[in-house]
Structure formats: structure tokens, C-alpha cells
Amino acid sequence: MLKDERDELCGIGRRLAGTGLVTGSAGNVSVRSGDLVAVTPGGMMLDRMAPADCPVVDMSARLVEGERAPSSETPMHLALYEATPAAAIVHTHSTYGAVVATTMSELPPIHYNTLLLGGVVRVAEYATYGTPELAENVRAAMAGGKRAALMANHGGVAIGRDLDEAFENARLLEWLCGVYVRAKTIGEPRVLTDEELARVVERGLTPPEFPRVT
Q1: How many CB atoms are located within 10 Å of the residue 18 CB?
Q2: Of 77, 99, 112, 137, which residue is 20 to 30 A from 126 by alpha carbon distance?
Q3: Which alpha helices (H) appear in 24-107, and where do they start and end?
Q4: Rounded CA gap, 96 and 182, in Å?
Q5: What does the buried/exposed string (b/e) look like for 99-124 if buried means 16 or more CB atoms within 10 Å of the residue's CB?
Q6: Higher confidence at residue 149 or residue 212?
Q7: How much is the average pLDDT of 164-168?
Q8: pLDDT single digits (tens) 110-140
Q9: Spatial separation of the C-alpha atoms in residues 14 and 163, rounded to whole Å
Q10: Which residues 6+ apart lie within 8 Å of 8 measured at CB?
Q11: Is 73 known to be catalytic?
Q12: Residue (of 150, 198, 196) closest to 177 by Cα position
């Protein structure tokens, strides 16, 4: 089931490891097709997965196909699929994302490309990984059309219309966090105003629309 989607999960897993957005077995990825979700397995390095390692679950988290247990963060993925039009989700433990998530309540708009993630990136309140509480906190942080969020003392999550877009949103989130952290070492970062961001929107920089659900 979802053979192509499971192939894609493996490819994204290798890219995440290769770019340093995940280390070891940290982080997880999923892709939705209808009422089924292919997700990375728990406890396995993402750059060593084969398609058969990736289980398929339904929207109630019931295992439909696969020998391995789904990622412990599957409840968070399913909560985001219920709350957003996303077709793919990437969760990372990237360095700068974790730094910002450990110290701040939000990532301010220090660069206009923040708009591609829906504006100010919120930091979801801390909760133990894999719990319904964390899933609900992340859902709240992503409300209002956000494409990414950080999780307090944990990492980041990004959504997209497909796995490539979710991956690129995760990369952009880490880049923005990295710019902020580095800027803090030489001074106080300048934050763009609402008016300045509005001018950028007028020039056409907005996140791509999710496909209309019919």
C-alpha cells in the first residue's frame, strides 16, 4: 500500500540526514493519501529506511500495513492532518530550531521569507513527546494558516502540499532560526514591522495555496 509514498519517505529521510536536520533516529516524516498515512517507523535512522520499513496507518492511528511500529509522534501528525490541508509533514530536531524552541515563545519576523511559513513562527508549549498533549499544543501553534511551528525544548515541524514542500519549509525554518541565533551574537536583531511585511505581500510573496478540498 502507498508504495510510491513510502519510497518518497525514504528519499526525504536521506535528505534530512544529509542536511543535518535530523541526527540518528530523531525526527519523523509522514505523507497522506486519502484516509491513509505512510509514516516513518519509530527508533530507526531515517537515512537507513527501506520502503517496507514505513508503516501505513489510518486516521485513527490503526496500523493498516507494515511490520514496524509507527513513529511515536504519529498522534501529532494525525492531529495536523485533521486541522490543516497538509498532505505531508516533516518533524526535525535541527540545531538552531531547538535553540530557539528552548529559549523563546516565538520566532519573530527577522526576514521577509518568514511570510512563506505564514508569518511569526509560534513555539508550542512543552509536553512529553508522543502524547496527545503535545499533539494538541502543536495543533494550536499551527492555527491560522501557519506552515511551521517550533516545539518548546524539542524541535520543529513543517507541513506542505507534498513531501518536497514540507522538507523545504523545514529547511527554511532552520535557516530563519539560524539567522536569528547568529544575529543575537553581534546585536539585537531588527524585526520587520507589520507595515513592512504588508508591502512584501503586496509584491506577491505569500505561501502557495493548498489544493482546494472538494
Answers
A1: 11
A2: 112
A3: 74-83, 95-103
A4: 9
A5: bbbeebeebbbbbeebbbbbbebbbb
A6: 149
A7: 98
A8: 999 999 999 999 999 999 999 999 999 999 9
A9: 13
A10: 31, 163
A11: yes
A12: 150
The 155-160 sheet, strands edge to edge: 63-65, 56-58, 36-39, 28-33, 88-92, 155-160, 148-151, 121-124, 106-107
The count of other CB atoms within 10 Å of the CB of residue 173 is 30
Q: Is the pLDDT of residue 80 over 80?
A: yes
Mean pLDDT of the chain: 96
214 pLDDT higher than 50: no
Considering only CA atoms, which of 175, 187, 70, 25 is closest in space to residue 113?
Answer: 175
**Residue 211, pLDDT score:** 79
Tell me the Ramachandran region of residue 139: left when phi exceeds 0, alpha when psi lies from -120 to 50, beta otherwise: alpha
The three cell numbers locating residue 186 = 553581534
Residue tagged active-site, from 8, 73, 165, 174: 73
| pLDDT > 50? residue 176 | yes
